[in-house]
């Protein structure tokens, strides 16, 4: 069975005011004292962010438990220096992001200017194992139409600089400012994929392969495909749900490839529109159906995803977990809806952050 790993980016905030705090170096220093966690937490572009990576897992229950554990350890280390962690894909409160000053980040700041200085957004990346680059690229070609549905399920960034953005996932709109971000055309082979990446790096517009920010890409470090469309999810259970769906999409796509089924030929232009609609609507309105690229109720489109990957979910033992998780999201809402309801109830973005800090560590 394919293994799955998750990388989550968490926001460091003041536990009293809810304002982001540029203390990642101090948190990482504390974490480095724990030998068991030296390969778990990583530095990110901005000092208000902390990233962790789970170990690869086969069982989704164990993956969920590890996400909860890593969030708890992040909270413990952050609490030791007087701050807290929140699984928020953008800061609800105004923030002036502090860029890390290693060589790589300085190059990015010089090259991209205001894009870097406004890019405090936090995502959830899912790695799913593949047998080869050839299989991985076949998967990338075939999952493209379904990525917008994952984005809608995970949407958790309605606020930007203290205001309602009118989007469910404003993080994804900010992320599109990178020159290499977004959906891709069909590659057809691993050779074409690698040639395309090499050509992009050769332009000098991006620094290296690490700046290939496709919605889904071959991992540089692991034998995986990496899904990069999801907001960091408010609840750990939603992150595990997205991971289970990502694995099912990979398994379904790989099976289609082995059986000789061609990928859907949707243009990048249409895929961008589907991504925009998912960012705007989340689960509250309509999405573009991956088969027809026409607007349909979000619940209908989510049900279509479940039908598309149902056989793979059953084979992995994830069908009940995913059905329950989707039903819960459709009933109670994703992180974007929760944040808006919290603001409506409390009238305070600070209180929104405080409650999201609590939910970040909830099982």
From TrEMBL:
HAMAP family according to UniProt: Glu_cys_ligase_2 (MF_01609)
Gene Ontology molecular function: any one: glutamate-cysteine ligase activity
Alphabetized UniProt keyword annotations: ATP-binding, Ligase, Nucleotide-binding
The protein's Enzyme Commission number: 6.3.2.2
UniProt similarity note: Belongs to the glutamate--cysteine ligase type 2 family. YbdK subfamily.
Enzyme class: ligase
Function per UniProt: ATP-dependent carboxylate-amine ligase which exhibits weak glutamate--cysteine ligase activity.
SUPFAM superfamilies given in the database record: Glutamine synthetase/guanido kinase
Catalytic function, reaction form: L-cysteine + L-glutamate + ATP = gamma-L-glutamyl-L-cysteine + ADP + phosphate + H(+)
Species of provenance: Streptomyces mutabilis
GO terms classed as biological process: modified amino acid biosynthetic process
Protein name: Putative glutamate--cysteine ligase 2
């Amino acid at each position: 069975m394919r293994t799955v790993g998750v990388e989550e980016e968490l926001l460091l905030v003041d536990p009293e005011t809810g304002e982001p705090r540029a203390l990642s170096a101090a948190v990482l220093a504390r974490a480095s004292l724990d030998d068991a966690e030296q390969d778990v937490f990583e530095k990110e572009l901005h000092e208000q962010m902390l990233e962790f990576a789970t170990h690869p897992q086969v069982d989704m229950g164990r993956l969920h438990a590890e996400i909860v554990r890593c969030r708890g350890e992040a909270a413990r280390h952050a609490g030791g220096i007087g701050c807290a962690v929140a699984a928020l894909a953008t800061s609800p409160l105004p923030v002036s992001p502090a860029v890390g000053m290693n060589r790589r980040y300085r190059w990015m700041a010089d090259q991209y200017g205001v894009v870097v200085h406004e890019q405090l957004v936090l995502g959830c990346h899912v790695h799913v194992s593949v047998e080869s680059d050839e299989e991985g690229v076949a998967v990338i070609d075939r999952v493209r139409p379904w990525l917008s549905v994952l984005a809608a399920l995970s949407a958790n960034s309605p606020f930007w600089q203290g205001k309602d953005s009118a989007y469910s996932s404003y993080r994804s709109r900010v992320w599109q400012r990178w020159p290499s971000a977004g959906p891709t055309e069909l590659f057809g082979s691993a050779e074409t994929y690698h040639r395309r990446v090499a050509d992009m790096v050769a332009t000098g517009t991006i620094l290296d392969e690490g700046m290939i920010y496709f919605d889904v890409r071959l991992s540089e470090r692991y034998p995986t495909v990496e899904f990069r469309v999801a907001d960091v999810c408010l609840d750990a259970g939603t992150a595990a749900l997205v991971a289970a769906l990502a694995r099912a999409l990979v398994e379904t796509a790989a099976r289609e490839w082995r059986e000789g089924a061609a990928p859907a030929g949707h243009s990048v232009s249409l895929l961008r529109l589907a991504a925009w609609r998912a960012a705007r609507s989340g689960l509250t309105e309509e999405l573009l159906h991956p088969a027809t690229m026409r607007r349909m109720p979000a619940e209908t489109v989510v049900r279509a995803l479940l039908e598309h990957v149902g056989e793979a979910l059953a084979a992995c033992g994830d069908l009940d977990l995913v059905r329950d998780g989707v039903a819960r999201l459709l009933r109670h809402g994703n992180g974007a809806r929760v944040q808006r309801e919290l603001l409506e109830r409390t009238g305070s973005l600070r209180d929104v952050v405080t409650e999201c800090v609590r939910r970040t560590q909830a099982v």
